[in-house]
């Protein structure tokens, strides 16, 4: 069987090993945004674990509404509906739990073939310090219960020249780091991601960030590194990332000295 035999995202259901995630699934050849569709479906009664996938997005978006490059048939674009009920833990660090699940899913598929795979706080996966995947979490409240959509885009088959010129220096894909015989179809990858994501989310919803903290920190590329932290109006401060707080906030020490400070939502760059 060809390594890319399981590339059709519409067929991921046959490969699932999850209890909930992806068991209800709709696939689109092209859509504006999988997250937008999942939010719409959530309002319409989508069950917990419902999955939206697409081969292409015309209005894919990432954190802070930034556009997400989404050409047809090359990558994974997916969003999952979650109905955890009344919150037992703060959800501000949900993207960190999603990052752990995605990272462990890729490791389950590729083993040690991706030695430079890492997490970049708060919502990116990097490979050779270039962006491989991004995460977008959105929430709505229904009374005292929270409803969530978690979306992610993973660059799978694109070669370097297939990225827009503005992304070629900062983005990467699995294809650029694997030999042809090592490559795996998108549906097979997605099934593994959903399996590990389900496990990570179960831990997170039961115990908050503390339950996945060691898994996150062991793969976080930023800890101990010099970073640039957005300070508003285009200003940045140089600092050293020293760890994560109990709620998932990044803690940094100014490079020039002084008390450490928390970073909760600002943009952060590796120096």
Automatic annotation (TrEMBL):
Keywords associated with the record: Biotin, Ligase
* Molecular function (Gene Ontology), one example: biotin--[biotin carboxyl-carrier protein] ligase activity
What is the reaction catalyzed? biotin + L-lysyl-[protein] + ATP = N(6)-biotinyl-L-lysyl-[protein] + AMP + diphosphate + H(+)
Taxonomic lineage per UniProt? Bacteria, Pseudomonadati, Myxococcota, Polyangia, Nannocystales
Q: Name the enzyme group at the top EC level.
A: ligase
Designated name of the protein: biotin--[biotin carboxyl-carrier protein] ligase
Supply the Pfam families for this chain: BPL_C, BPL_LplA_LipB
What EC number(s) does the entry state?
Answer: 6.3.4.15
Q: Does the keyword Ligase apply?
A: yes
Q: Which InterPro entries match?
A: aa-tRNA-synth_II/BPL/LPL, Biotin_CoA_COase_ligase, BPL_C, BPL_LPL_catalytic
* CDD domains in the cross-refs: BPL
Entry GO CC = cytoplasm
**Keyword Ligase in record:** yes
Q: Outline the extent of the BPL/LPL catalytic domain.
A: 24-205
Spell out the Gene3D superfamilies in the cross-references. 2.30.30.100, Bira Bifunctional Protein, Domain 2
